Each structure stands twice: as C-alpha cells, then as structure tokens.
C-alpha cells in the first residue's frame, strides 16, 4: 500500500498532522494500534456522562495553537466552557478561599495574611514582567521563586501554581525559563483554560472528517511492528501482514515506546533510545458521575499542600453530564517515584479520596459512574532543565524522511499546545521537502 505520508499513531498528534497534510493534498494514511482513534484524547459516553482519558483542559483554545490548526483547516474552534474564577477555590490546611487573577482579588483573598498578599502581588508582577531569555540556563522554578520571595506561604503557592499549570509534581524541578514563558503565554489570556463541549472528540473528530474528506485513510486496530530502512531512508512501516510504503513517515509514539519500531541495532534505534530515557508526567485520575448536584456553585478546588485537584467539569461545561447530574474530575498529581511505587500510589489515592470526603460530603451515595486511571500518562516528557537538553527533534539525523510529532518535541510549549505546534511544524516541513526546486533562470537574456 503506497501513500505520500504514513503516520504512526492516531491520537491528537497523529490526527491533527494527518488532517493538515491531507488538506494540503497529500495522500495520508494514519495507523492506530487501538480499536478507536483519539489516543489520550479519546472520549466516550456512559450513562449520559462524557468522559475523556484523564485530564482534558485546553489552554488558550481561541488564541493559541488549536485556533491556528482549525484556521488552516477552515473550521471553527470547538465550543469551550471557561472556568469562572469566582467559583475556583484554593485549599491550604483549614483555609479554603477564592483567589482570582486580578490584583484586587489577590489583595482581598482569605487564603493569605495581609502581609503574604502583598508578597504574592510582588511575585506575580515579577512573573508577568520577567524576560525568560535572560534566565540563566539550568535554573529551576524553585530557584527562581526563592530568588524573588522569601515568604514561605507564597513560595508554596508558587509551587502549586506550577503544578496546576503543567500537571508536574514537584513543579519546583521544572525549567524556570520554560515555565515563565508558559505562564506569560496562558495565564493572562482571556481564554486561559477551556473545557471542550462534547469532550475532546469535538476536536479530533474534525481532524478525522478532514482526513477523510481529503482522501486520507484512518486504519485502527493495527500495530506497526517495525520500520523498514533502505539507503538511509524509511521506505515502509510494516505490520504483521502489510507493508505501508510512503515518501515520508511521521511517528507520534511516546519516546519511551518509539525505539521498539526501529530496526534492531540501527543508528535510528540508537537515536530513539536516547530519547526513551525522558521522564514522563503521570497523574492518578478519578472521574465520577453523580446523579445529583453534590456541591453547588463550585468550579474547582486545588489543594496546595497535597497537590490534589477537584474540578466539577459539568459546572464549567454543562453538557458533559445529564440534566440534574454532575461530572467531577479528581486528580492526584504524581512524582516519578509515586508513579512507579504501588505503595506510594495507594497513599496518593487515599489522600485523593480523603479530599473528596472533605470537599464533597455525600458523594459516595450519588455515584452512578466511576472510573479510575491509577497512573495516566499526561505528558511524555517532564520539562526539567536536564530533560530539555534531550527533547525529541523534528527528525532524526539517521532518517531524514522520518518526522516526529507529539508532546516530547523540542518546541517551547506544553500539554496540548506542544502537540498541535508539532503537528503544524511537521506538516510545513513535509510540504517544504516535497515542493519542487525553483527553476534556474536562463543564462541567455
């Protein structure tokens, strides 16, 4: 089977890249090992509730990468609900209070003492005015914060702010320059965080539609066994019974899994194995469908002390739950050690459930649907200074017609933004590589 482009992986990266390339006129084949497309963006319904795989916040959907991708496709951005900060709470010990982004909200919150509030305002102003390019290489978020405030409560809050914006625990290990750029990009935008109406399928089904409308193919339930190399180029992606030939190939597998498809002992496998050592970001997620409103007038709660997150998704986006019900997403952010240790993981689940009992009394009696993901992969690479030295490039040195898209790419974004940015970059690179060379001017005039 011959295509212009074969894409390995039918998640958000693969589907968006495929849609963009097909729109450009490329013959595209997307191959997904699962029986359903979507990958970590997969959405399904149960008893009237709409569930996604794990977290599904979309940052700056109307002004960021999603808007750019949809504009290329000639499609509108899917409708999103936005968190109302007047109903977003922060918990710290026995204190529970609203903390909005505006200066007067910071100065009146009961989460901090009067002195701490002024220290927090100073830190937020420093964050907003910082020049990430001037931060010394290797500086962590913890080090940057400690350089800008001596207040212990504000430092703890800054760590929580890093976690809730990146899903990374502990956020103090993150690269400071990278995180400052991320904060400046998203925190002060009007469309800061959106929850998609209908779940993320409202987005990836657009990609599937565009792929099909422009002659592309989506094949599910098919696993790529290995890539076939000849003359220093990839010539085919091979399954148990089929060779998928193409001029260009796109790998969207997490870097921890990608080496398995490289030819054994090849230079490509050696390159991929370097990237496979990247630490990923994991979270313990519980999605709960309630048959009634367990708590009113509440969008979310973040527990600063324990890095726990509780979001009533249906408060922000009502169509995610049936009439009269509520959909709650509860999450315990995980350190690498917690994700790898069953005992530590069990302890995190106990903490998450204790928080449910505290903040949503009576929730157990209202549950009609419950799903737990004990250690869901949120992002394929933690954005620490060390990891950022080894992020996955656009293409490997050993195979110039192989491209990489996904959230471990060497692009200065995060979460879904980096996935969509990589899709745009790969689509442009393939289009440029396939464009005919300009004709030489005639020597005679």
State the domain count: 3
CATH superfamily of the largest domain: FAD/NAD(P)-binding domain
Largest sheet: number of strands, sense, barrel closure: 7 strands, mixed
**Which strand-content bin applies to the residues?**
15-25%
Q: What is the count of DSSP helices, taking H or I runs of 4+ residues?
A: 15
Structural class designation = alpha/beta
Proportion of residues in helical segments: 25-40%
How far the N terminus sits from the C terminus, by CA atoms, comes to 47 Å
CATH topology of the largest domain: FAD/NAD(P)-binding domain
Show unreliable segments: 441-445
Let me know the average pLDDT.
Answer: 94
Rg: 23 Å
Q: At the first level of CATH, what is the class of the largest domain?
A: Alpha Beta
Shape: globular
Please tell me the CATH architecture of the largest domain by its name: 3-Layer(bba) Sandwich
Q: Total number of β-strand segments?
A: 19
Write structural notes for this entry:
The protein has 445 residues and is α/β, with parallel strands linked by helices. The protein has 3 domains: 186 residues, FAD/NAD(P)-binding domain (3-Layer(bba) Sandwich); 85 residues, Guanine Nucleotide Dissociation Inhibitor, domain 1; 101 residues, Polyamine Oxidase, Chain A, domain 2 (Alpha-Beta Complex). It contains 15 helices and 19 strands. The strands form 4 sheets. Strands 1, 2, 10, 11, 12, 13 and 19 form a 7-stranded mixed β-sheet that branches. The chain has a 7-stranded mixed β-sheet with strand order 8-7-15-16-17-14-18, sandwiched between helices. The protein has a 3-stranded antiparallel β-sheet with strand order 5-9-6. Helix 1 runs parallel beside helix 8, helix 1 packs parallel to helix 15 and helix 5 crosses helix 7. The C terminus is likely disordered.
């Amino acid at each position: 089977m011959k295509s212009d482009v074969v894409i390995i992986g039918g998640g958000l990266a693969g589907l968006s890249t495929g849609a963009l390339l097909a729109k450009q006129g490329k013959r595209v084949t997307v191959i997904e090992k699962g029986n359903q497309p979507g990958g970590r963006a997969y959405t399904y319904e149960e008893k009237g509730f709409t569930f996604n795989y794990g977290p599904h916040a979309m940052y700056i959907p109307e002004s960021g990468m999603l808007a750019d991708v949809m504009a290329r496709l000639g499609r509108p951005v899917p409708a999103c609900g936005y968190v109302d900060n007047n109903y977003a709470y922060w918990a710290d010990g026995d204190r529970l209070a609203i903390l909005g982004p505006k200066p007067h909200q910071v100065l009146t919150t009961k989460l901090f003492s009067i002195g701490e509030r002024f220290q927090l305002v100073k830190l937020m102003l420093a964050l907003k005015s910082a020049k990430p390019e001037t931060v010394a290489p290797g500086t962590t978020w913890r080090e940057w914060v400690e350089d800008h405030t001596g207040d212990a409560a504000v430092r703890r809050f800054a760590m929580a702010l890093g976690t809730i914006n990146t899903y990374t625990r502990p956020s103090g290990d993150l690269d400071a320059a990278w995180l400052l750029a991320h904060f400046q990009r998203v925190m002060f935008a009007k469309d800061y965080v959106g929850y998609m109406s209908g779940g993320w399928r409202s987005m990836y089904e657009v990609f599937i539609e565009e792929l099909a409308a422009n002659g592309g193919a989506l094949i599910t339930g098919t696993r790529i066994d290995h890539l076939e190399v000849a003359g220093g180029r990839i010539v085919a992606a091979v399954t148990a019974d089929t060779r998928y030939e193409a001029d260009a190939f796109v790998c969207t597998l997490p870097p921890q899994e990608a080496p398995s498809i490289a030819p054994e002992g090849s230079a490509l496998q050696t390159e991929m194995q370097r990237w496979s050592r990247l630490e990923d970001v994991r979270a313990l997620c519980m999605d709960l469908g309630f048959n009634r409103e367990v708590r009113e007038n509440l969008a979310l709660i973040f527990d600063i002390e324990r890095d726990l997150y509780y979001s009533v998704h249906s408060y922000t986006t009502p169509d995610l739950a049936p009439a009269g019900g509520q959909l709650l997403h509860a999450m315990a952010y995980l350190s690498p050690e917690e994700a790898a240790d069953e005992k530590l993981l069990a302890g995190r689940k106990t903490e998450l459930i204790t928080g449910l009992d505290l903040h949503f009394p009576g929730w157990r009696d209202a549950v009609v649907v419950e799903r737990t993901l004990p250690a869901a992969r949120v992002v394929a690479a933690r954005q620490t200074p060390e990891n950022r030295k080894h992020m996955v490039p656009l293409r490997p040195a050993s195979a110039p017609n192989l491209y990489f898209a996904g959230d471990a790419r060497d692009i200065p974004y995060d979460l879904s933004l980096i996935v969509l940015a990589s899709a745009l970059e790969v689509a442009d690179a393939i289009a440029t590589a396939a464009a005919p060379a300009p004709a030489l001017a005639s020597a005679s005039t």
